[in-house]
Amino acid sequence: MSDHPTLGRILKELRNHRCWTLKEMSERSGIPISTLSKVEHDRLTLTYDKLLQLSQKLRIRISDLFAESDSAEEGVTARRSIGRIDDSVRVTTPNYDYYYLCTELRRKRMIPILTRIRAKSLSEFGDLVRHSGEEYIHVLEGSIVVHSEFYDPVTLHTGEGIYIDSNMGHAYIADEGCDEALVLGICSSADESLMSSLMNIHEPVGAANQTVEEVDV
Amino acid sequence: MSDHPTLGRILKELRNHRCWTLKEMSERSGIPISTLSKVEHDRLTLTYDKLLQLSQKLRIRISDLFAESDSAEEGVTARRSIGRIDDSVRVTTPNYDYYYLCTELRRKRMIPILTRIRAKSLSEFGDLVRHSGEEYIHVLEGSIVVHSEFYDPVTLHTGEGIYIDSNMGHAYIADEGCDEALVLGICSSADESLMSSLMNIHEPVGAANQTVEEVDV
DNA sequence: ACATAATGATCCTGATCGGAAAATTGTCAA
DNA sequence: TTGACAATTTTCCGATCAGGATCATTATGT
Q1: What is the pLDDT of residue B76?
Q2: Contact at 8 Å (CB) between A57 and B135?
């Protein structure tokens, strides 16, 4: 069992490997010599910003600084999760009610979300939403109008869907004919990484008063 | 540019999405509430050891804490494709009728497929299907029975869904109560072109007599 | 009224971090 | 061998900050 090697050892090996002096490393990284020296002797550790600075100035992956055995997975997994709205995690925003499905599964490549659309006009909706990744939206009940940054609005009825790049501004609003609409959305989680998708996906930028509540968990 | 979100934002999004309170997160991570609160408000950052602690206690990978989008961040794309069954590509197999949606879009990360399920018994179905990737299946009409390699069969009714690792053997058959069932399936495409995914994904291995015909393309 | 959750305000101990001085190591000439 | 001398590394010190405890406040729901 190799314990986590210290940050000092990692930095020292990195520096030796590249045949740098402390001074050279200091100039490249923008971190003073004295600090680097102390880190290498485990008399000091670094904070978030310094680690980030090291990572991008020296072009190291963050995970290397933590000696993380990177993606070691891709074995035969056999996960299964049933998506029922009663077991979902509900997130309400002014425009949508989200029901996150299958939340018990971590690190999925896709995120299924049942969404009840309340907004009925673009002005009511506010700014277009944009985030990384892609998404497919399928209309389950009612009909919706899809507004987007680079296309004319289009109306989708029950049974129809749309696939879009999510970094294009977009907004789904309920069509005039119906009171509310229910859609199934699937968001690609950006880079096989659950977190980065959770970071960016489906958070209306600047939405102030979100309420988050669990339902039946 | 690299709009590096702050550590605070990242932690906050993480916590919100898992629907944890500060207290809960504190207990799980072993970091006191006051510290977490300050971090989330960007009044504080964390040092190496705390970041490591967060990573392993909460089972997050370090790179996620730094919002490191390892692989190249793509440019701004603005694709859009409407998925109507009339514009789909139809593929018939003994067990299923597939309607591939949004086929005009190449290189998508997900593949939406409307599927009409005809098989009504596992014996009639044949061997379980297995392929790479993950998939989410949502029942639109009727109800289905999901058979899989490592789980008991489960019945899904209209409005319910299931997320599975596709390399686990699986089969969807129409429930006895209904004649046919209609489901919306989304397959994660292992970042390959549409064609190769059409070739590999969702083809019962060894299915001999497939008919492929385009409808309204 | 009560409990829970989030935030803010203090206070404190110990750590980060950077500049500058001191110590170490190596090189070369007399 | 000895004494400059420079390059590299380490130590010292002060200003700032991490990080944890505690209490007060506000909002929300029961």
Answers
A1: 61
A2: no
Question: In this complex, is the C-beta atom of B165 within 8 Å of any C-beta atom belonging to chain A?
Answer: yes
- pLDDT the model gives residue B15: 84
Report whether pLDDT(B202) > 60.
Answer: no
Averaged confidence pLDDT in chain A: 79
Give kind and range of the element (H or E) at residue B114: strand B110-117
pLDDT range class, residue A214, cuts 50, 70, 90: very low
Q: How far apart are CA A119 and CA A107, in angstroms?
A: 31
Residue A176 CA to residue A180 CA, distance in Å, equals 9
Return residues 135-164 of B near A (CB < 8 Å): 136, 138, 140, 148-151, 154, 156, 159-164
Residue nearest to nucleotide D9 (CA to C1'): A37
Q: Which residues of B touch A51 (CB under 8 A)?
A: 48, 51, 66
State the SS3 of A43-92.
CCCCEHHHHHHHHHHCCCCHHHHCCCCCCCCCCCCCCEEEECHHHCEEEE
Distance A27 CA to D11 C1' (A): 21
Angle (deg, nearest 10), helices B48-57 and A48-57: 90
Residues 6+ apart with CB under 8 A from B146: B137, B153, B154, B155, B156, B162, B164, B170, B171, B172
Q: Write down the pLDDT at residue B3.
A: 52
